[in-house]
Amino acid sequence: MLNKPGLDVDPQLMYELHGKLKQIKPQQFLRKLMYRQVIDVQNAHRYIRDKDLAEKCAVALGERGAEFDRVVTRVASEDSRTRPEVLAGIPSLVIDQGFTELLSTTTEAQLYAPLVSLFEFIKHFFRAHYTAAGPKHPSSNTIDHPWPSASPPNLPEPRKTRFGGAELLRRRFVDTHQDTFSSSKHVKHPPPRDLHPDISMILHKDVTVKQLVESNHPPWKDSGGRVHWKDVKVPIEVKVKGFRAAYVCQLARYAKGIKTEQFDRNFAFSLLVTSKTCHIFHWGASRCHVAEVDITNDTATFIQIIGRLASMDPPNLGYDPRFSNAGRVLAKESATMDTVLEVASYEPDQLLQAAIGGQRQ
Predict the structure, then answer these.
(1) 213, 181 in Cβ contact below 8 A?
(2) I need a surface site. Which of 99, 224, 295, 311 has the fewest CB within 10 A?
(3) Where in 116-267 does DSSP place strands (E)?
(4) Is the pTM of this model over 0.85?
Protein backbone atom coordinates (compact mmCIF):
# COMPACT_ATOMS: atom_id res chain seq x y z
CA MET A 1 0.00 0.00 0.00
CA LEU A 2 1.42 3.41 -0.96
CA ASN A 3 0.11 6.05 1.40
CA LYS A 4 1.11 9.14 -0.53
CA PRO A 5 -1.77 10.46 -2.65
CA GLY A 6 -1.22 11.14 -6.30
CA LEU A 7 1.32 8.34 -6.78
CA ASP A 8 -1.16 5.56 -7.48
CA VAL A 9 -1.16 5.93 -11.27
CA ASP A 10 2.33 6.26 -12.73
CA PRO A 11 2.26 7.49 -16.37
CA GLN A 12 5.67 5.91 -17.02
CA LEU A 13 4.49 2.55 -15.69
CA MET A 14 1.28 2.78 -17.71
CA TYR A 15 3.36 3.45 -20.83
CA GLU A 16 5.65 0.48 -20.11
CA LEU A 17 2.67 -1.82 -19.45
CA HIS A 18 0.72 -0.76 -22.53
CA GLY A 19 0.21 -3.79 -24.77
CA LYS A 20 2.16 -6.05 -22.39
CA LEU A 21 -0.63 -7.07 -20.01
CA LYS A 22 -2.33 -10.20 -21.32
CA GLN A 23 -5.34 -11.80 -19.64
CA ILE A 24 -5.73 -15.57 -19.91
CA LYS A 25 -8.14 -18.11 -18.43
CA PRO A 26 -7.44 -19.34 -14.87
CA GLN A 27 -6.85 -22.99 -15.79
CA GLN A 28 -4.53 -21.96 -18.61
CA PHE A 29 -2.64 -19.75 -16.15
CA LEU A 30 -2.35 -22.61 -13.67
CA ARG A 31 -1.22 -25.21 -16.19
CA LYS A 32 1.27 -23.11 -18.17
CA LEU A 33 2.62 -20.63 -15.63
CA MET A 34 2.19 -22.20 -12.19
CA TYR A 35 2.78 -25.84 -13.11
CA ARG A 36 4.78 -25.20 -16.30
CA GLN A 37 3.41 -28.34 -17.89
CA VAL A 38 4.92 -27.47 -21.26
CA ILE A 39 8.45 -28.08 -19.91
CA ASP A 40 7.88 -30.20 -16.80
CA VAL A 41 5.94 -33.46 -17.15
CA GLN A 42 6.18 -34.18 -13.42
CA ASN A 43 4.24 -30.98 -12.73
CA ALA A 44 1.32 -32.39 -14.73
CA HIS A 45 0.89 -35.00 -12.00
CA ARG A 46 1.21 -32.32 -9.35
CA TYR A 47 -1.50 -30.31 -11.06
CA ILE A 48 -3.97 -33.20 -10.90
CA ARG A 49 -3.06 -33.95 -7.28
CA ASP A 50 -3.34 -30.29 -6.21
CA LYS A 51 -6.64 -29.80 -8.02
CA ASP A 52 -8.11 -32.70 -6.05
CA LEU A 53 -6.52 -31.40 -2.86
CA ALA A 54 -8.03 -27.92 -3.39
CA GLU A 55 -11.49 -29.42 -3.79
CA LYS A 56 -11.02 -31.36 -0.55
CA CYS A 57 -9.84 -28.19 1.19
CA ALA A 58 -12.99 -26.36 0.06
CA VAL A 59 -15.12 -29.15 1.48
CA ALA A 60 -13.20 -29.02 4.77
CA LEU A 61 -13.69 -25.26 5.03
CA GLY A 62 -17.41 -25.66 4.35
CA GLU A 63 -18.12 -28.64 6.61
CA ARG A 64 -15.65 -27.84 9.42
CA GLY A 65 -15.39 -31.49 10.43
CA ALA A 66 -12.51 -33.74 11.49
CA GLU A 67 -10.27 -32.76 8.55
CA PHE A 68 -10.77 -29.09 9.33
CA ASP A 69 -9.98 -29.65 13.03
CA ARG A 70 -6.77 -31.49 12.19
CA VAL A 71 -5.43 -28.53 10.23
CA VAL A 72 -6.57 -26.03 12.86
CA THR A 73 -4.53 -27.96 15.41
CA ARG A 74 -1.44 -27.68 13.19
CA VAL A 75 -1.90 -23.92 12.79
CA ALA A 76 -2.39 -23.43 16.54
CA SER A 77 0.70 -25.49 17.32
CA GLU A 78 2.98 -23.64 14.89
CA ASP A 79 1.81 -20.16 15.91
CA SER A 80 1.56 -20.87 19.65
CA ARG A 81 -2.12 -19.92 19.73
CA THR A 82 -5.18 -21.60 21.15
CA ARG A 83 -7.60 -23.47 18.93
CA PRO A 84 -10.43 -20.98 19.65
CA GLU A 85 -8.16 -18.13 18.52
CA VAL A 86 -7.36 -19.89 15.25
CA LEU A 87 -11.00 -20.90 14.66
CA ALA A 88 -12.22 -17.36 15.18
CA GLY A 89 -9.93 -16.05 12.46
CA ILE A 90 -10.75 -18.46 9.62
CA PRO A 91 -13.63 -17.14 7.47
CA SER A 92 -16.66 -19.40 7.01
CA LEU A 93 -17.23 -20.84 3.55
CA VAL A 94 -20.68 -21.43 2.10
CA ILE A 95 -20.30 -23.38 -1.14
CA ASP A 96 -21.33 -21.31 -4.21
CA GLN A 97 -21.87 -18.28 -1.97
CA GLY A 98 -18.34 -17.43 -0.88
CA PHE A 99 -16.65 -16.64 2.41
CA THR A 100 -19.15 -15.01 4.75
CA GLU A 101 -16.72 -12.78 6.67
CA LEU A 102 -15.11 -11.51 3.47
CA LEU A 103 -18.42 -10.63 1.82
CA SER A 104 -19.62 -8.72 4.88
CA THR A 105 -16.63 -6.37 5.00
CA THR A 106 -16.99 -2.71 4.09
CA THR A 107 -13.36 -1.58 4.42
CA GLU A 108 -10.05 -2.86 3.14
CA ALA A 109 -8.62 -3.11 6.66
CA GLN A 110 -11.30 -5.62 7.63
CA LEU A 111 -10.03 -8.06 4.99
CA TYR A 112 -6.41 -8.38 6.12
CA ALA A 113 -6.82 -10.68 9.15
CA PRO A 114 -9.36 -13.13 7.68
CA LEU A 115 -7.37 -13.42 4.44
CA VAL A 116 -4.11 -14.14 6.27
CA SER A 117 -5.91 -16.76 8.40
CA LEU A 118 -7.42 -18.32 5.28
CA PHE A 119 -4.10 -18.40 3.41
CA GLU A 120 -2.35 -19.99 6.40
CA PHE A 121 -5.10 -22.61 6.71
CA ILE A 122 -4.74 -23.51 3.02
CA LYS A 123 -0.95 -23.68 3.38
CA HIS A 124 -1.23 -26.05 6.33
CA PHE A 125 -3.91 -28.12 4.60
CA PHE A 126 -1.56 -28.73 1.68
CA ARG A 127 1.35 -29.34 4.05
CA ALA A 128 -0.63 -31.88 6.11
CA HIS A 129 -1.71 -33.81 3.03
CA TYR A 130 1.75 -33.81 1.49
CA THR A 131 3.07 -35.35 4.69
CA ALA A 132 0.22 -37.86 4.92
CA ALA A 133 0.48 -38.88 1.26
CA GLY A 134 3.69 -40.83 1.77
CA PRO A 135 6.82 -41.25 -0.36
CA LYS A 136 5.02 -42.48 -3.49
CA HIS A 137 4.04 -38.95 -4.52
CA PRO A 138 6.54 -36.26 -5.59
CA SER A 139 7.09 -33.76 -2.76
CA SER A 140 4.65 -35.72 -0.58
CA ASN A 141 6.62 -35.30 2.62
CA THR A 142 9.34 -32.98 1.34
CA ILE A 143 7.42 -29.74 0.91
CA ASP A 144 10.26 -27.68 2.43
CA HIS A 145 13.18 -29.80 1.22
CA PRO A 146 13.73 -27.61 -1.89
CA TRP A 147 14.25 -24.68 0.52
CA PRO A 148 17.31 -25.59 2.65
CA SER A 149 19.16 -22.76 4.35
CA ALA A 150 21.73 -21.13 2.11
CA SER A 151 25.26 -22.59 2.21
CA PRO A 152 28.57 -21.23 0.91
CA PRO A 153 28.94 -22.31 -2.75
CA ASN A 154 32.07 -24.37 -1.93
CA LEU A 155 30.04 -26.55 0.46
CA PRO A 156 27.78 -28.87 -1.58
CA GLU A 157 25.79 -30.08 1.43
CA PRO A 158 23.20 -27.80 3.08
CA ARG A 159 23.69 -26.81 6.69
CA LYS A 160 22.48 -29.33 9.24
CA THR A 161 20.43 -28.94 12.38
CA ARG A 162 21.64 -30.35 15.67
CA PHE A 163 19.43 -33.37 14.95
CA GLY A 164 21.32 -34.14 11.74
CA GLY A 165 18.65 -33.13 9.20
CA ALA A 166 18.92 -30.27 6.73
CA GLU A 167 18.09 -26.84 8.14
CA LEU A 168 14.98 -25.90 6.17
CA LEU A 169 13.37 -22.53 5.55
CA ARG A 170 9.64 -21.89 5.90
CA ARG A 171 7.05 -19.82 4.03
CA ARG A 172 4.43 -17.79 5.83
CA PHE A 173 1.63 -15.40 4.84
CA VAL A 174 1.98 -12.22 6.91
CA ASP A 175 -0.03 -9.02 7.29
CA THR A 176 2.47 -6.35 6.22
CA HIS A 177 0.16 -3.41 5.48
CA GLN A 178 1.67 -1.30 8.28
CA ASP A 179 5.25 -2.55 8.06
CA THR A 180 8.28 -0.63 6.87
CA PHE A 181 10.20 -2.35 4.08
CA SER A 182 13.95 -2.09 3.54
CA SER A 183 16.34 -2.77 0.66
CA SER A 184 19.99 -3.74 0.33
CA LYS A 185 22.60 -0.99 0.31
CA HIS A 186 23.78 -1.87 -3.19
CA VAL A 187 20.34 -1.13 -4.71
CA LYS A 188 20.69 2.31 -6.28
CA HIS A 189 17.00 3.06 -6.71
CA PRO A 190 15.12 1.19 -3.96
CA PRO A 191 11.32 1.31 -3.68
CA PRO A 192 9.90 4.09 -1.48
CA ARG A 193 9.89 3.14 2.19
CA ASP A 194 6.13 3.59 2.38
CA LEU A 195 5.59 1.11 -0.45
CA HIS A 196 4.54 -2.19 1.11
CA PRO A 197 2.21 -5.04 0.15
CA ASP A 198 -0.87 -5.49 2.30
CA ILE A 199 -0.02 -9.19 2.73
CA SER A 200 3.24 -10.95 1.87
CA MET A 201 4.32 -14.54 1.52
CA ILE A 202 7.69 -14.40 3.22
CA LEU A 203 10.57 -16.86 3.48
CA HIS A 204 12.17 -17.14 6.92
CA LYS A 205 14.15 -19.45 9.13
CA ASP A 206 12.20 -22.11 10.94
CA VAL A 207 11.85 -21.41 14.67
CA THR A 208 10.50 -23.35 17.59
CA VAL A 209 7.38 -22.28 19.42
CA LYS A 210 9.55 -21.22 22.36
CA GLN A 211 11.74 -19.05 20.14
CA LEU A 212 8.66 -17.48 18.53
CA VAL A 213 7.18 -16.60 21.93
CA GLU A 214 10.41 -15.31 23.48
CA SER A 215 11.64 -13.29 20.49
CA ASN A 216 11.32 -9.51 20.53
CA HIS A 217 10.44 -9.58 16.86
CA PRO A 218 9.18 -12.30 14.48
CA PRO A 219 11.79 -14.21 12.44
CA TRP A 220 10.83 -12.47 9.20
CA LYS A 221 11.78 -9.00 10.53
CA ASP A 222 15.14 -7.45 11.36
CA SER A 223 16.06 -6.02 14.74
CA GLY A 224 14.48 -2.72 13.73
CA GLY A 225 11.15 -4.37 12.94
CA ARG A 226 11.54 -3.99 9.17
CA VAL A 227 10.64 -6.47 6.43
CA HIS A 228 13.20 -6.84 3.63
CA TRP A 229 12.25 -7.01 -0.05
CA LYS A 230 14.73 -9.86 -0.48
CA ASP A 231 12.60 -12.13 1.74
CA VAL A 232 9.25 -11.40 0.02
CA LYS A 233 8.33 -14.22 -2.32
CA VAL A 234 4.76 -13.19 -3.25
CA PRO A 235 3.29 -9.69 -2.64
CA ILE A 236 -0.48 -9.44 -2.23
CA GLU A 237 -2.61 -6.34 -2.64
CA VAL A 238 -6.04 -6.24 -0.98
CA LYS A 239 -9.01 -4.16 -2.12
CA VAL A 240 -12.69 -4.18 -1.20
CA LYS A 241 -13.70 -4.49 -4.84
CA GLY A 242 -12.80 -3.55 -8.39
CA PHE A 243 -9.92 -3.82 -10.82
CA ARG A 244 -8.28 -0.53 -11.73
CA ALA A 245 -5.18 0.68 -13.51
CA ALA A 246 -3.91 2.10 -10.23
CA TYR A 247 -3.97 -1.36 -8.67
CA VAL A 248 -1.98 -2.82 -11.55
CA CYS A 249 0.60 -0.04 -11.16
CA GLN A 250 0.82 -0.89 -7.47
CA LEU A 251 1.51 -4.54 -8.24
CA ALA A 252 4.04 -3.55 -10.91
CA ARG A 253 5.93 -1.56 -8.26
CA TYR A 254 5.98 -4.60 -6.01
CA ALA A 255 7.29 -6.79 -8.83
CA LYS A 256 9.99 -4.23 -9.60
CA GLY A 257 10.98 -4.06 -5.94
CA ILE A 258 11.30 -7.83 -5.79
CA LYS A 259 13.18 -8.32 -9.05
CA THR A 260 15.55 -5.43 -8.30
CA GLU A 261 16.48 -7.03 -4.99
CA GLN A 262 16.38 -10.67 -6.08
CA PHE A 263 18.73 -10.76 -9.08
CA ASP A 264 18.49 -14.57 -9.32
CA ARG A 265 14.78 -14.38 -10.15
CA ASN A 266 13.46 -14.66 -13.70
CA PHE A 267 9.80 -13.97 -12.95
CA ALA A 268 7.53 -13.21 -10.01
CA PHE A 269 3.91 -13.78 -9.01
CA SER A 270 1.61 -11.35 -7.24
CA LEU A 271 -2.04 -11.29 -6.21
CA LEU A 272 -4.85 -8.75 -6.13
CA VAL A 273 -7.57 -10.06 -3.81
CA THR A 274 -11.02 -8.66 -3.04
CA SER A 275 -13.95 -10.17 -1.15
CA LYS A 276 -15.21 -11.82 -4.36
CA THR A 277 -12.34 -12.08 -6.83
CA CYS A 278 -8.67 -12.92 -7.09
CA HIS A 279 -6.39 -11.71 -9.88
CA ILE A 280 -3.07 -13.51 -10.13
CA PHE A 281 -0.20 -11.90 -12.07
CA HIS A 282 2.90 -13.47 -13.61
CA TRP A 283 5.56 -10.80 -14.17
CA GLY A 284 7.99 -12.05 -16.82
CA ALA A 285 10.83 -10.37 -18.68
CA SER A 286 8.77 -9.07 -21.60
CA ARG A 287 5.12 -9.11 -20.49
CA CYS A 288 2.70 -9.75 -17.67
CA HIS A 289 0.01 -12.43 -17.74
CA VAL A 290 -3.03 -12.15 -15.49
CA ALA A 291 -5.99 -14.40 -14.72
CA GLU A 292 -9.19 -13.55 -12.84
CA VAL A 293 -10.77 -16.10 -10.51
CA ASP A 294 -14.27 -15.82 -9.09
CA ILE A 295 -13.78 -16.79 -5.44
CA THR A 296 -17.53 -17.29 -4.92
CA ASN A 297 -18.21 -19.65 -7.83
CA ASP A 298 -14.76 -21.15 -8.33
CA THR A 299 -13.46 -21.45 -4.78
CA ALA A 300 -11.39 -24.57 -5.50
CA THR A 301 -9.31 -22.80 -8.17
CA PHE A 302 -8.64 -19.92 -5.76
CA ILE A 303 -7.56 -22.41 -3.09
CA GLN A 304 -5.33 -24.25 -5.58
CA ILE A 305 -3.56 -20.99 -6.46
CA ILE A 306 -2.79 -20.24 -2.80
CA GLY A 307 -1.79 -23.84 -2.10
CA ARG A 308 0.48 -23.94 -5.13
CA LEU A 309 2.26 -20.71 -4.14
CA ALA A 310 2.79 -22.12 -0.64
CA SER A 311 4.29 -25.38 -1.93
CA MET A 312 6.35 -24.37 -4.98
CA ASP A 313 10.07 -25.08 -5.21
CA PRO A 314 12.42 -22.19 -6.12
CA PRO A 315 12.52 -22.76 -9.94
CA ASN A 316 8.71 -22.87 -10.21
CA LEU A 317 8.48 -19.71 -8.12
CA GLY A 318 10.75 -17.94 -10.58
CA TYR A 319 14.31 -18.51 -9.38
CA ASP A 320 17.09 -19.44 -11.78
CA PRO A 321 18.46 -22.82 -10.65
CA ARG A 322 21.83 -22.03 -12.24
CA PHE A 323 22.51 -19.77 -9.26
CA SER A 324 23.79 -21.40 -6.10
CA ASN A 325 21.36 -20.82 -3.22
CA ALA A 326 18.73 -19.67 -5.74
CA GLY A 327 15.99 -17.85 -3.82
CA ARG A 328 17.28 -19.04 -0.44
CA VAL A 329 19.63 -16.31 0.76
CA LEU A 330 17.78 -14.33 3.42
CA ALA A 331 18.33 -10.61 3.88
CA LYS A 332 20.04 -11.13 7.26
CA GLU A 333 22.80 -13.21 5.67
CA SER A 334 23.09 -11.58 2.24
CA ALA A 335 26.20 -9.62 3.24
CA THR A 336 28.16 -12.78 4.05
CA MET A 337 26.58 -15.44 1.83
CA ASP A 338 27.62 -15.67 -1.83
CA THR A 339 25.26 -16.48 -4.66
CA VAL A 340 27.25 -17.72 -7.65
CA LEU A 341 26.09 -18.33 -11.20
CA GLU A 342 27.04 -21.88 -12.09
CA VAL A 343 27.41 -22.52 -15.82
CA ALA A 344 28.99 -25.30 -17.83
CA SER A 345 32.55 -24.47 -18.80
CA TYR A 346 34.45 -25.51 -21.94
CA GLU A 347 37.96 -25.01 -23.18
CA PRO A 348 38.15 -22.41 -25.97
CA ASP A 349 39.32 -25.00 -28.48
CA GLN A 350 36.27 -27.16 -27.72
CA LEU A 351 33.98 -24.26 -28.54
CA LEU A 352 35.93 -23.56 -31.73
CA GLN A 353 35.78 -27.18 -32.86
CA ALA A 354 32.03 -27.26 -32.20
CA ALA A 355 31.57 -24.12 -34.30
CA ILE A 356 33.68 -25.51 -37.16
CA GLY A 357 31.76 -28.78 -37.04
CA GLY A 358 28.47 -26.90 -37.28
CA GLN A 359 29.66 -25.00 -40.37
CA ARG A 360 30.65 -28.22 -42.17
CA GLN A 361 27.20 -29.81 -41.79
Answers:
(1) no
(2) 224
(3) 169-175, 181-182, 199-205, 227-228, 232-238
(4) yes
